[in-house]
Design a protein that fits this description.
It catalyses: L-threonine + hydrogencarbonate + ATP = L-threonylcarbamoyladenylate + diphosphate + H2O. The chain is α/β, with parallel strands linked by helices. Helix content is about 30%, strand content about 20%. It is built from 7 helices and 9 strands; from the N terminus they run αββαβααβαβαβαβββ. A hairpin with a 5-residue loop joins β8 and β9.
Length: about 190
């Protein structure tokens, strides 16, 4: 992992850019979750409707503190058993995230990553980022940099950060309130 890549990627995010970065299993597209224009650009690139919502990722659980305030001790224990790692949790947002992040949902998807580049990127950026699989809707998620470039060419502001974590499937998605597994992991 190159510190220069981390800095360049974080600057691109801060400037409203959309970047591609490795995650635990696949490449992700990322942007500043509070920059509506950046999120709309990311959604256009993926051909993804805003109604589906997006995942917020950080390397530090503290970045999610306002979203975790209303959770019980038992719910927090569930998160702590899987974080940092490749499990994304749907957590009630109580109106604390913009609608372009939550979509049509009363919950927001959160993951505390253990991927070295992505965690360092969030620290350098200063908080959580949007991270969604780097592929157009209906296409297979990119597992290699060359696939990202094939999908998006020069439309991104940064593509880099090394290799994925090598997991066979994208992150597991669980609903914290119901306990349902919406997308199983490997």
């Amino acid at each position: 992992m190159s510190l220069l890549d981390v800095r360049f990627a974080a600057r691109a995010l801060a400037a409203g850019g959309v970047i591609a970065h490795p995650t635990e299993s696949v490449w992700g597209l990322a942007c500043d979750p509070y920059n509506r224009d950046a999120v709309e650009r990311l959604l256009r690139l993926k051909d993804r409707p805003v109604s589906k919502g997006l995942i917020l990722v950080s390397g530090d659980e503290a970045d999610f503190s306002p979203l975790l305030d209303n959770l019980t001790a038992s719910q927090l224990q569930q998160l702590h058993r899987t974080w940092p790692g490749p499990v994304t949790w749907l957590v009630p947002h109580f109106g604390r995230v913009p609608p372009w992040i939550s979509g049509d949902h009363h919950s927001v998807a959160l993951r505390c990553t253990n991927h070295p580049f992505t965690a360092a990127l969030c620290r350098e950026f200063g908080g959580a980022i949007v991270s969604t699989s780097a592929n157009p809707a209906g296409a297979q998620p990119a597992r290699h940099r060359y696939q990202v470039l094939r999908y998006f060419g020069g439309a991104l502001d940064f593509v880099g950060g090394g290799a994925t974590g090598g997991r066979a499937s994208p992150s597991e998605i669980r609903d914290l309130i119901s306990g349902d597994v919406l997308r199983p992991g490997s």
